[in-house]
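worker-03 picked up job from queue 'complexes'. Input manifest follows; two sequence lines, order preserved.
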Amino acid sequence: MVSATAIILGAAVLALVWAAIQFLAISKIPVKSNEGGEADETTGLTSEGGDADATTERLLEIYTAIYEGAESFLKAEYTVCFWFVLVFSAIVLILVSWGTGWDWVRGAFTMVSFVLGAGTSIVSGYLGMKVAVYSNVRTTVSAQKSGWTACFNTAFRAGAVMGFALCGLGILMLYLTMLVYRTHYPQPEEWIYLTECLTGYGLGGSSIAMFGRVGGGIYTKAADVGADLVGKVVHGIPEDDPRNPATIADNVGDNVGDVAGMGSDLFGSFAESTCAALVIGSSVGVSDGWDAMVFPIIVSGVGVAVCLVCSFLATDILPVRKEEHVETALKVQLISTTLLMIPAIFLTAFGFLPTQFALKAVVGETELTIAPWMAASCVIMGTVGGLIIGLITEYFTSHSYRPVREVADACKTGPATNMIYGIALGYKSVIIPVVVLALVIYGSFRLCDMYGVALAAIGFLSNLATGLTIDVYGPVCDNAGGIAEMAELDPAVREKTDALDAAGNTTAAIGKGFAIGSAALVSLALFGAFVTRIRHSSDDALFSDGVNMLEPLTFAFLIIGGMIPFAFAAMTMKSVGFAAMMMVMEVQRQFDERPHLLDANPTERPDYDACIKISTEASLKEMLPPGAMVILTPLLTGILFGVNALSGLLVGALIAAVQLAISMSNSGGAWDNAKKYIEKASPDSDLKGKGSDIHKAAVVGDTVGDPFKDTSGPALNIVMKLMAVLSLVFADTFYAINNGGGLFHMA
Amino acid sequence: MVSATAIILGAAVLALVWAAIQFLAISKIPVKSNEGGEADETTGLTSEGGDADATTERLLEIYTAIYEGAESFLKAEYTVCFWFVLVFSAIVLILVSWGTGWDWVRGAFTMVSFVLGAGTSIVSGYLGMKVAVYSNVRTTVSAQKSGWTACFNTAFRAGAVMGFALCGLGILMLYLTMLVYRTHYPQPEEWIYLTECLTGYGLGGSSIAMFGRVGGGIYTKAADVGADLVGKVVHGIPEDDPRNPATIADNVGDNVGDVAGMGSDLFGSFAESTCAALVIGSSVGVSDGWDAMVFPIIVSGVGVAVCLVCSFLATDILPVRKEEHVETALKVQLISTTLLMIPAIFLTAFGFLPTQFALKAVVGETELTIAPWMAASCVIMGTVGGLIIGLITEYFTSHSYRPVREVADACKTGPATNMIYGIALGYKSVIIPVVVLALVIYGSFRLCDMYGVALAAIGFLSNLATGLTIDVYGPVCDNAGGIAEMAELDPAVREKTDALDAAGNTTAAIGKGFAIGSAALVSLALFGAFVTRIRHSSDDALFSDGVNMLEPLTFAFLIIGGMIPFAFAAMTMKSVGFAAMMMVMEVQRQFDERPHLLDANPTERPDYDACIKISTEASLKEMLPPGAMVILTPLLTGILFGVNALSGLLVGALIAAVQLAISMSNSGGAWDNAKKYIEKASPDSDLKGKGSDIHKAAVVGDTVGDPFKDTSGPALNIVMKLMAVLSLVFADTFYAINNGGGLFHMA
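worker-03 finished. Artifact:
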């Protein structure tokens, strides 16, 4: 039989090679306005205009502007991250070493993992941005050709580059680190230390994800909201109109927020769920060897292969030939990968897990006996649960179903009823996902204790490569449309990219459902690992009967924990609102000073860079306070008030964050699609269509929804995960302070 | 020394007498348009017009219309409540009797308490509505006089009638019930059963409060939002303009929702906190007698006396002579009662509690020794905590401070940024109240275990009479303004009532802060009592080491519990949105069919009754699903899944409800006051004032805020309390089902 190492490294390399192949396919498309297609009557911008060359030049110009904007933002953002990593790795080194009785090796290994996790996250985000920018313009060009296959495939392949590269890189770095650490910890009894040091990898990934999601989220939405407010409301020009000074910033935002930020987020989830499963399952290694212990990583490796096979369905076996095929193709990806994962997981479990193995329960003295079918079932519960949550999310955010149509109807009586209906929709959409999560938690917890919860989280993310592909596909299409508009191509091109984007919007919402659900499971698993660590460190003095919520300190921190997501959402939303208002003022200033910018065929371009600068500066400044809150709260709680307080904090935050994240993402998605639904309506229908008062009311909802769905909502994932992984990494340190009582001796 | 019974009954009678005196003072004001005041140039409505008689007639006409609308709604609502009480008292009788091994006495006593609690709540609500309607028009008349003292005092006295009558009635009924039950349970050892049967009183109070808050809340906001949308947005007439068909329904709503509903809510809190304290402290009776056991009720009695004394500050010692005095007068009430309560509580504790007494901790085997100062400190923590939360609420909702002004500024860039800022404000406003609550919980829990938490809840509500006075004052002024507008009195009258109302808005927000904070403590105390009951019933087999949140079922239900408040908010918000849209359509129909209704001096009145009917029917229909959810969820969870699941559900709901309730109430209050702030701005200022686009953006926020602050937000209080008290009442029943494992044998 093949060894685990062969499979894991093989899968990682396969993923990277596949990403390279997809990239090659994209790179074959020249950035050149298409002359043979149905859309070659492009309107030139300058007086020489009218010919394809001028358009090509314009395309290149826009491409360069977006590329440079994204590059300069990411550089600035990653500079901040660099300093953060530098300072925080010193903190990790010192606190972990001190917490383990000055075991410098564990401190250093944890620090190295942290740096590697952070580095991989940065590379993933940067790579994603590059690929996306590279592919946007090529998608636009492909959309000039007749038929849907070419442009869909281009955007889909762009997603695949990101999806597979990230998975490959994540698995590769994680596993290589493990192999290196194993040379220092060769004995199975020591692997518990190995896996503990590895948790730094999750912490690094999630820290960068926090900054990426928040910084990128503020950037993209400040630009988007700003462009919307000015363009649509104040001057009646579309958001991607080249005369709108915020338009390049808006398109840059799609790449740095929706691609780079989201990539870092999901990389973080992957890293953390793997670390949680490894820490909890490290005792498996003692009894049954390395290959059994690394079962969670094998699942991820197998997932890559499954996703690769299924991706042929979209690009080759059932290619997209009509507009209606687009959404189906993406949905087929999600469903087919989930279905194919089921037998794959069973085979993996029976192949690599011993026929039975023992695990100690997180609470009490019970020893569980686990068979492969039990572990496989936990993984599958996660995979299937993810799909169900995804499909429910689709029901609540796609305008093919009643909820979004009700929101659209509510626009008839103005923006206020639109808001009320949209918020109510978000709150209501929480019900089924939470029940599904509760079922997955209960089922996996009962079957395999905390190890089961961690496996379920792995299961949620097992088709990550596909999830990421689809997630990246959306912003690429969005940007392709923006470029078409800015380059003043034939409106038919824009219509095509809009149709591609609409499907992407819904599937992006599905992706968010996945991300939030997996984050909840990951956080619970990390919390379980934290409790196990503390129990172990305290020789069963703490938490051996579980975590009592009627401990005064724990209860007090339960409600404080529940407050954190609200405070976080408040900070991030206000940052977006504030930056958007600055953007509006800047744009207005430009129009006031140079009114001819608004001419039908202006001879001068607006100052795009000023808007890019506002977004960049605002997001870098505004990402720090919420980031600091999320990192410092668990750290200070653990240090000052001890582990009982920290337990309450983590669980409270988890409970509130799940609900708020789901509701915010879905409200935002629903508003966006309600607006699109109204735009599609004819002026004679009862929804009156584009430009009507009903449409204006819908735009208000969409604008409010922007920070909901792309800044605060998805960043709440990271809030729960990051707080939990941080607690796990510093578990020994917290216990070392007055036996878990904190500096205030609260235990 | 006086006996506890003398003090309690004395205080209750005093409160009732004082309410009667205040009522007499109001009734001396004749409903007659004032000819001597500065505002006697009233504009007559009909062609005979111009004289005071026509105005008087008009005043009486409006008064009658509002009175009849309110009366008919409450009758309809209480008919639903009657059937609910009938059916549910049978359920209480049977389930409690069965759960206690067919102890029919306990079943019957619990049922009688339930009926009495429900009855008292209905009487309180009805009485409040009567007094408010009676006083509204008299406040309008008083506002015609020169000076501020008369009109302020009239509105304040109306509040006092409700405040003192409700407190008096609540204490009287509760205590008399106890005295009657004592004849059956004369031995101190049996008092535990006595107090348990008494919990039905809290359940009854809270059930009616649920329907009152939700039904009344939907009624008032459907009418308000409907009137706003049509009046301000569609036709440009003010919301209280007599030509607006929804205007009477809007004014009826103030009385049935903001007065009757809120009265029932706070009565419920009072009843539940007292019941929780009595159940937890019942063992005190065994060692130290009846007077020590009823200490919590004595505190409430003393509170009445303190509130009575302080009320002279507002009406006589420092009467309101200028506009600026209004807000100060109300704030002085809150602060003075809190300060005076501190020595009063100490005296009561040292007077009635033994120098030390023992209490068993809710978790573990610890026996706590409690001294009077400790009990007094818990009560005081509650009282002071309530004041701090109130003042923070004021900071976030009054336009004297930065947060609301920022929201007003955000209106400059349209309704979307207004929404983003307002929601962010609400989320942010959660931070300090939650920290204060956590401190109160930790402090009181550490000092006196769960008994301390219950005492803190009592402390929160100790100046309930004053809180209610101020809460009722607001809608009375609001209605007085509406009447002035509808009767077309001099605009100066409206300006005066508006100024009175603005202060009332802020203090109403303070009152909501109180209500939410106390609800959180009450729920925790009730949960503690529930755990104690189960522990006792199971002979320490369950919960003796606390409630472990890492029990799979408990954790699964923690996140389900966290979902309940969101689902509840979704249902109630959507109900308001739906009913408001129906209202808009009805109004539009009237205007379309009879366009001359919009003439400057119409000869015909719109069909007010049609709008009243829509609000009534919508609210009665729409209050049932959320009410059923809140009642059935804990009941079915306990019956099907057992007590571990139920524990998770209660705590999860508590954590999420606190945050959501505070944020929704404060967002709503802030939007309302941001709108008022913009209305006060002059057209030359940067906020542009009434009628501008900035104002229109503010109106959108205000409209969204209506269901936030007056329907969903405050009703979330009741969600947590009702779920907790229901679990406590049926604790024995749940344990009786498979030893707390539920029908599904989950334990």
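worker-03 released lock.
The longest strand of chain A covers residues 357-360.
Chain A touches chain B through 81 residues (CB under 8 Å).
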